[in-house]
Specification:
Elements lengths: L3 E6 L6 H9 L4 E6 L17 H6 L2 E2 L12 H17 L3 E6 L2 H8 L10 H14 L1 H11 L1 H5 L6 H14 L3 H4 L10 E8 L2 H18 L1 H10 L14 H8 L5 H24 L5 E4 L6 H14 L6
Parallel strand pairs: 1-4, 1-5, 2-3, 2-4, 5-6
Helix pairs in contact: 1-14, 3-4, 5-6, 5-8, 6-8, 10-13, 11-12, 12-13
Length: about 325
C-alpha cells in the first residue's frame, strides 16, 4: 500500500496553521510548508509565519532558510520537498503539507507539464523589470540561464523571452531542457483537503489579519528589510503587504491608504488561490462553519487520512 501524505490547502487567512497544530496534537507529524514567501528570513509578519511557540511545538520545514535576494523556484521546492517527505516517513512521522502556493503543491505532487507552467505574479514581476531595466537586460539573463533558447530567439522577441524566463523562474530549469522531459509524479498518494469559509467571513478574517499585522509592526519589518539592503525590486518582496508598505515608506501612500490597499489586494489574492485550487477535483473542501471548532475539523481530516474519505455526520 502506498503511503499517504496529507495536504492542508486553501486561501490566506483560512486557518490552515491552527488546524495543522490540532492535527499534530493527535498524530506525530512534521509540517512541510508550501508557501513561496515563508521560505525567506526577516519576513515573518507580512507572510503570517507560524509563531515561535507554534514552530517549537511541531517540526516545520521550508521556513526561514533563504535570504530575500535568493531565487527559489517551485521546481526546486518540489524536488527538495519530496526528499524531505521521504525523511519524515523514515523517522516514523506523518508528513503534513500546509500552504496556499498552488505552484509549489503542483511541483511537489505532479511535476510539471510545460504548457501548464504559468504564474501571474512571476509574469508581472518580469514585465515590471522590463519597464525598469529594459529588454536587453532580461535577454542577457536568458542567455546566461538558458543559452539554447536565447540562441533561437531574436533579442527583440519580448513575449518569448519573458515566457522562457517565466518558466525558468517557476521550475528552476531551462525551457530548452525542460520541454524534453516528462513529469514524474510523486511516489505517494496525496490526500488533499481544502479549508475555507463563506466569502463574507473569509474577507472579514483577511481584514482582521491585516489590522493585526499592522499592530504587530509590519511597517517596522519593512523598514528593517530596507536597512538590510532589500527592497521592492526583489521578487520575494514584490508581493501583497510589502509592496504597499514600501510605497508608503516612499511617500506615495498614506498609512490609511496602505492598509486599505493591502486588504483589497489580499482579498484579490485569496480569490485567485480559491480559483486555482478549485480546478483540482482531487480536493475535498471543508467549510469552518460546518464544524464546532478547529479540533472538530482536525478529527474529520484525520479520518480522511486513514480512510481516504471525508467523515459522514
Amino acid at each position: 500500500m502506498r503511503r499517504r501524505v496529507l495536504f492542508i490547502l486553501g486561501p490566506t487567512a483560512a486557518g490552515k496553521t491552527a488546524v495543522a497544530l490540532r492535527i499534530a496534537e493527535q498524530v506525530a507529524c512534521e509540517v512541510v510548508s508550501a508557501d513561496s514567501r515563508q521560505i525567506y528570513k526577516y519576513m515573518s509578519i507580512g507572510t503570517a509565519k507560524p509563531a515561535t511557540t507554534e514552530l517549537a511545538a511541531v517540526p516545520h520545514h521550508f521556513i526561514d532558510f533563504l535570504e530575500p535576494d535568493q531565487r527559489y523556484s517551485a521546481g526546486q521546492f518540489g524536488l527538495a520537498a519530496r526528499d524531505c517527505i521521504q525523511g519524515i516517513f523514515e523517522r516514523g512521522h506523518q508528513p503534513l503539507v500546509v500552504g496556499g502556493s498552488g505552484l509549489y503543491v503542483r511541483a511537489l505532487v505532479d511535476g510539471f507539464f510545460s504548457r501548464r507552467i504559468a504564474s501571474d505574479e512571476v509574469k508581472a514581476a518580469l514585465r515590471a523589470e522590463v519597464g525598469k531595466s529594459g529588454l536587453p537586460v532580461l535577454y542577457k539573463r536568458l542567455q546566461s540561464v538558458d543559452p539554447a533558447t536565447a540562441g533561437r530567439l531574436p533579442a527583440t522577441d519580448s513575449q518569448r523571452i519573458l515566457r522562457a524566463l517565466e518558466v525558468f523562474e517557476i521550475t528552476g530549469q531551462p525551457l530548452s531542457e525542460f520541454v524534453l522531459e516528462k513529469p514524474q509524479p510523486a511516489d505517494f498518494d496525496p490526500v488533499f483537503v481544502g479549508l475555507t469559509w463563506r466569502r463574507a467571513e473569509l474577507y472579514r478574517r483577511i481584514d482582521a489579519r491585516v489590522d493585526a499585522m499592522m499592530r504587530a509592526g509590519l511597517v517596522a519589518e519593512a523598514e528593517d528589510l530596507r536597512r538590510r539592503g532589500y527592497g521592492p525590486e526583489l521578487n520575494a518582496l514584490n508581493t501583497v503587504g510589502y509592496k504597499e508598505v514600501f510605497a508608503h515608506l516612499g511617500g506615495s501612500l498614506s498609512l490609511e491608504e496602505t492598509v486599505k490597499l493591502i486588504k483589497q489586494k489580499t482579498r484579490n489574492y485569496a480569490k485567485r488561490q480559491l480559483t486555482w485550487f478549485r480546478k483540482d477535483k482531487r480536493l475535498t473542501w471543508l467549510h469552518f462553519e460546518d464544524f464546532v471548532d478547529s479540533g472538530d475539523m482536525a478529527g474529520n481530516i484525520l479520518h480522511m487520512l486513514a480512510s481516504g474519505q471525508p467523515q459522514t455526520a
